[in-house]
C-alpha cells in the first residue's frame, strides 16, 4: 500500500505526527508489510500554524498514484479551500481508494468535491463549515463512510492511526501498537456507515 501524507502551510503538526507515528508501525505486521509513504507538499518546506518548519520529501506528486491519501487539518485549511492551485492538486486524488483526514482536513476533501454523498466529521468547533460539503456532518470522533474516513479534533489523530492499524492489520496489531506508544485509551464514537445508507 502506498500512502501520501499531505502537508501545507498552516497545518496543525499534531494532526500529522499523531497519525504518522502510529501508522509508521504498519510494517511490523504480515498483513500490512511493504507499506510505504511519502510526505508530500507543494513546496520543499512547510510551516505549521505555530511557526515550526518541516521538509517534505515529494513535491506535488500526482496523488492518483497512491492507494491512501491522508489530509491533516489546521488553520491553513480555511485559506486553502479557496486556493485553486492547491485544490487542483488535491483533486488528483479522485481515484485514490482511501481518502482519510483528521480535524479540518475534511474541509479540503469537501472542497475538492469528494464528500458530496458522504457522512463525515471534523473538529467540533467547525461542524458548520463542513456542512455545505457533505451529505451529513456526524458529530462523532471517527466516521468511516465507504473508504472515506474522517476524524475529529487534533488528538483524534492518534485514535485514527490506531483505527487504521486495526483496519489493515487487525485487532491484535492495534492492541500491540497501543502498548508500544503507552496509549491506554479506546476510541469512543466510531461510526461506520453501512453501504447504501
UniProtKB/TrEMBL annotation:
Residue intervals of the DJ-1/PfpI domain: 1-166
InterPro entries: Class_I_gatase-like, DJ-1/PfpI, INH-QAR
Coiled coil: none
Taxonomy, superkingdom: Bacteria
GO terms for biological process, alphabetical: regulation of DNA-templated transcription
One Pfam family in the UniProt entry: DJ-1_PfpI
Protein name: Thiamine biosynthesis protein ThiJ
UniProt organism field: Paenibacillus ihbetae
